[in-house]
Write a sequence for this structure.
C-alpha cells in the first residue's frame, strides 16, 4: 500500500498559516492548563477560595472547558478565512 | 443486593445489539475495498465523525469511571475529565490536519510518510497493538462488570457477549459500521445524560434523599455510649466487653457490638469524659473459605445499603432540610455551602476473617469541590506532587496519541473536515464532562452509591428517577463499551494487516486480500480481547486506562510532533523514540508502587515511588529521537542523494 491520504486532497496554500496559528493557540492553552496543574500541586488550598460564588477549583475547571471551546471556534474561523483567502 | 436485574434494560440492550448488527450487515455490502474497510471510504461527514469521535472517546472509563470517582472522591474525579478534554486541544492545534494530510489508513502511515522505513513500520505497529490492548482490557472488564448486576450473568458471559458482537461489527463492515455505532451511541449518551442532569436539578437537594427506585434511603444510626468502670462499653442494649479498645477493631477506631445475635461494627469517636459517639458502618467480611458477607449477610438479603447524602444543607446561610429545583450554578453553590457525608475505608483482620469497613466522614462541601480527596496534594512530598503532575501530563498528551482516535482522521474527505470534526468532538466531549460533574455530585448526594463498585454510580443515579431511565442508561453503558471496543479492534487489526503484513513483511496482497486480512486480524484481536477481559476480572478500570494514556503519550506523541515540527527528524530517530517511550513507560509502570501491591509486595519497597511515568518517559522518548536523529543525519542525506540519483 502506498502512503498519502485515502482520498485525493487538493493543494492547501493555507497550511503554513494554520500551522503557525495552531502552535500559537496550543501554547496559550498549554500555559492556562499547566497554570491549573501547578496551582493544584503547589498551593491546593487556594483552590478552595470562593470566586463568583463557587470554589476557584470549579471556576477554573469550568473555565478550562469553555476556554477550549472558544479557542477551538476562533481557530476554526481563522483557518476557514485563511483557506478562503489563499486557496482561491 | 443493591439493585435488581431489569428486564427493560435487558430488552433495550438486545434491541441495540440487533440494531447495530443489522446496520453492520447492511454496510458490509458496501465495504469491498481497503479504503472502505479501514477508512470508511473517507466519505464520512465531519459532524457525524465529530460525534463518532465523542462516542469513541467516552469509553467505560469516561462514562462510568469518572462519574464513579466524582461520586466518591469529589473534584479529583473531575480532574480526569479536565485532563482528558485538554488533550483534545493538542489533537486540534497540532495533529488533526497533518495526520489527515500524511496518513492513509493507520497512524503508522503518517509517521512513515517521509521515510518508507521498516523500523518505523514495525515499532509503530507494535506500539499500536500495545496501546490498543491496554485500552481493550478495561473496556472488556467494564463489560463484565456491567453484565453481572444487570443481566444476572457471570462476568465471563458479559465479556463474551460484547467481544462476539464487536468482532462481528468490525469483521463485517470495518470502519463504516464502527463509525455509525459510535455516532448513535455518542449522541444518545449526550441526550440521556442531559435528561438525568435536568431531572436532578429539578429535584434539588435533600438531607433525606429519595434513594433507589421506590426504596427509602437507609438512615444511618448514631449512638451515645458510656464506658463502664471495667472498661466495657454500653449503648442502647448493645454491649462491648472490656478489652474492646485493645482489640484489632479498637486499634483501628471501631468497635464490634452484638445485639439479638446480630453483630454490627461501629465507628468510635471519643466525646466528653467517659462517653463515646458510635456511628453505624457498612462492612464486607471475607471468611476463611473465601465467602463474602455484606453487613454479615448474603448480598441478596440487601443489608449492604446504598449510600450518599448531605448531613446539612445551607442556602444563603440558612439551614434547610431540602431545596426545591435549582439551577446548575445554584446546585453547586448549595453543595459547596453544605456538609457532605463521604465514606472512608479501613481493613481489619480478626482471626481468619478479613473486614473491609466503610465509615462516615462528614466533609464540608467546599472541600469536596476542590482537589485533594484522592490525589495527595495537601502537605504532599515532592514525589507525590511529581506523581500528580505526571498524571496530568499523561492525560494532556495521551489523547492525540491514541491509535484508535488517530485513525478517525482518515474517515473524512478533507483537512478542513478533520479540523471541524475535532471541534465537534471538543464541544460534545466538553459538554459531557460538564454533565459528569453533576452526575457524580448527584450520585454523591442522592443515596445511590454502591461502595463496593462505584463504577455503577451514574446508572444507579438514573435508577433513583425510575427503572425506565435506568434501563436506557444501562443499555447505553453497554453501547459505550461496544463503540470503544470496535474502534480499538479496527486500529489493532489495521496495525496487524496493513502495517505488519502488508508494509513491514511486504506480503503484497490484492485489495480484496487486504480486506480479508483485516477481517481475520479483527477476529483474532477480538478473541484476545475476550480472553484478557476474563483474565483481568477485578482489576481497576481507571488504573488500566491511565496506563494506556501514559504509554500512548510516551511512545507515539513525541514521534508525531517531532516529525511534524523538526526537520532533522530521521527514520531511525522516530523508531528509537517509539521504542524508548514504550519500554520506559512500561518499565516504570511495572516497577511502580501500585504494581508492587499487585505482586503481593509492600508499595514502599518499589524501586520507584510514583505510579504515573509520563513526566519521565516522554522526555526520554524526545531525547532518544533527537540524539538518534542527529547521529543519523549523514545516513538520511545519503539516502536522499541515492533516491535523487535513482530518479
Amino acid at each position: 500500500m502506498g502512503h498519502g491520504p485515502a482520498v485525493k486532497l487538493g493543494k492547501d496554500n493555507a497550511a503554513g498559516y494554520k500551522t503557525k496559528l495552531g502552535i500559537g493557540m496550543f501554547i496559550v492553552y498549554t500555559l492556562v492548563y499547566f497554570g491549573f496543574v501547578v496551582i493544584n500541586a503547589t498551593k491546593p488550598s487556594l483552590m478552595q477560595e470562593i470566586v463568583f460564588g463557587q470554589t476557584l477549583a470549579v471556576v477554573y475547571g469550568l473555565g478550562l472547558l469553555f476556554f477550549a471551546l472558544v479557542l477551538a471556534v476562533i481557530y476554526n474561523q481563522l483557518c476557514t478565512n485563511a483557506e478562503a483567502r489563499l486557496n482561491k | 443486593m443493591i439493585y435488581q436485574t431489569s428486564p427493560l434494560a435487558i430488552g433495550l440492550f438486545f434491541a441495540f445489539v440487533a440494531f447495530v448488527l443489522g446496520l453492520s450487515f447492511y454496510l458490509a455490502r458496501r465495504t469491498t475495498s481497503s479504503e472502505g474497510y479501514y477508512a470508511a471510504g473517507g466519505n464520512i461527514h465531519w459532524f457525524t465523525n465529530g460525534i463518532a469521535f465523542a462516542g469513541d472517546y467516552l469509553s467505560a472509563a469516561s462514562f462510568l469511571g469518572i462519574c464513579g470517582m466524582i461520586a466518591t472522591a469529589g473534584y479529583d474525579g473531575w480532574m480526569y475529565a479536565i485532563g482528558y478534554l485538554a488533550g483534545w486541544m493538542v489533537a486540534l492545534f497540532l495533529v488533526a490536519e497533518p495526520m489527515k494530510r500524511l496518513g492513509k489508513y493507520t497512524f503508522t502511515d503518517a509517521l512513515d510518510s517521509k521515510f518508507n522505513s521498516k523500523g518505523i513500520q514495525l515499532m509503530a505497529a507494535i506500539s499500536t497493538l500495545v496501546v490498543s490492548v491496554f485500552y481493550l482490557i478495561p473496556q472488556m472488564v467494564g463489560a463484565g462488570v456491567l453484565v453481572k448486576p444487570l443481566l444476572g450473568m457471570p462476568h465471563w458471559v458479559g465479556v463474551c457477549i460484547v467481544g462476539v458482537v464487536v468482532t462481528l461489527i468490525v469483521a463485517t463492515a470495518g470502519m463504516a459500521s464502527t463509525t455509525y455505532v459510535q455516532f448513535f451511541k455518542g449522541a444518545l449518551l449526550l441526550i440521556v445524560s442531559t435528561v438525568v442532569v435536568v431531572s436532578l436539578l429539578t429535584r434539588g437537594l435533600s438531607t433525606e434523599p429519595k434513594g433507589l427506585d421506590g426504596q427509602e434511603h437507609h438512615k444511618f444510626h448514631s449512638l451515645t455510649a458510656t464506658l463502664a468502670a471495667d472498661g466495657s462499653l454500653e449503648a442502647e442494649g448493645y454491649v462491648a466487653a472490656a478489652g474492646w479498645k485493645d482489640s484489632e477493631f479498637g486499634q483501628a477506631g471501631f468497635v464490634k457490638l452484638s445485639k439479638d445475635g446480630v453483630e454490627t461494627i461501629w465507628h468510635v469517636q471519643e466525646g466528653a469524659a467517659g462517653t463515646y459517639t458510635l456511628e453505624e458502618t457498612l462492612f464486607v467480611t471475607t471468611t476463611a473459605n473465601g465467602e463474602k458477607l455484606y453487613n454479615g449477610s448474603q448480598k441478596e438479603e440487601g443489608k449492604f445499603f446504598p449510600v450518599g447524602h448531605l448531613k446539612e444543607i445551607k442556602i444563603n446561610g440558612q439551614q434547610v432540610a431540602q431545596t426545591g429545583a435549582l439551577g446548575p450554578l445554584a446546585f453547586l453553590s448549595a453543595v459547596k455551602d453544605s456538609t457532605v457525608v463521604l465514606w472512608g475505608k479501613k481493613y481489619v483482620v480478626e482471626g481468619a476473617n478479613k473486614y473491609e469497613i466503610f465509615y462516615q466522614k462528614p466533609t464540608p462541601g467546599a472541600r469536596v469541590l476542590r482537589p485533594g480527596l484522592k490525589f495527595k496534594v495537601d502537605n504532599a512530598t515532592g514525589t507525590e506532587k511529581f506523581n500528580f503532575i505526571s498524571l496530568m501530563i499523561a492525560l494532556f498528551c495521551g489523547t492525540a496519541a491514541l491509535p484508535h482516535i488517530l485513525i478517525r482522521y482518515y474517515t473524512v474527505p478533507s483537512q478542513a473536515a478533520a479540523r471541524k470534526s475535532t471541534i465537534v468532538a471538543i464541544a460534545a466531549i466538553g459538554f459531557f464532562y460538564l454533565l459528569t460533574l453533576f452526575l457524580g455530585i448527584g450520585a454523591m448526594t442522592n443515596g445511590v452509591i454502591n461502595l463496593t463498585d462505584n463504577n455503577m454510580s451514574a446508572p444507579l443515579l438514573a435508577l433513583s428517577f425510575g427503572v425506565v431511565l435506568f434501563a436506557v442508561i444501562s443499555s447505553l453503558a453497554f453501547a459505550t463499551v461496544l463503540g470503544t471496543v470496535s474502534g480499538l479492534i479496527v486500529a489493532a487489526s489495521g496495525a496487524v494487516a496493513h502495517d505488519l503484513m502488508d508494509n513491514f513483511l511486504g506480503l503484497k496482497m490484492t485489495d480484496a486480500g487486504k480486506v480479508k486480512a483485516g477481517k481475520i486480524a479483527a477476529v483474532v484481536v477480538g478473541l484476545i480481547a475476550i480472553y484478557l477481559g476474563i483474565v483481568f476480572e477485578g482489576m481497576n478500570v481507571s488504573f488500566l486506562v491511565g496506563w494506556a494514556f501514559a504509554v500512548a503519550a510516551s511512545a507515539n506523541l513525541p514521534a508525531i510532533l517531532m516529525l511534524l515540527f523538526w526537520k532533522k527528524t530521521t527514520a531511525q530517530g522516530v523508531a528509537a523514540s517509539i521504542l524508548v517511550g514504550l519500554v520506559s513507560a512500561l518499565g516504570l509502570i511495572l516497577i511502580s508502587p501500585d504494581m508492587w501491591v499487585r505482586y503481593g509486595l509492600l508499595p514502599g519497597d518499589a524501586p520507584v515511588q510514583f505510579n504515573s511515568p509520563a513526566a519521565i518517559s516522554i522526555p526520554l522518548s524526545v531525547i532518544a529521537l533527537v540524539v538518534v536523529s542527529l547521529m543519523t543525519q549523514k545516513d538520511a542525506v545519503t539516502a536522499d542523494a541515492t533516491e535523487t540519483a535513482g530518479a
Chain A touches chain B through 52 residues (CB under 8 Å). The two ends of chain A are 32 Å apart (CA to CA). The mean pLDDT of chain A is 90.
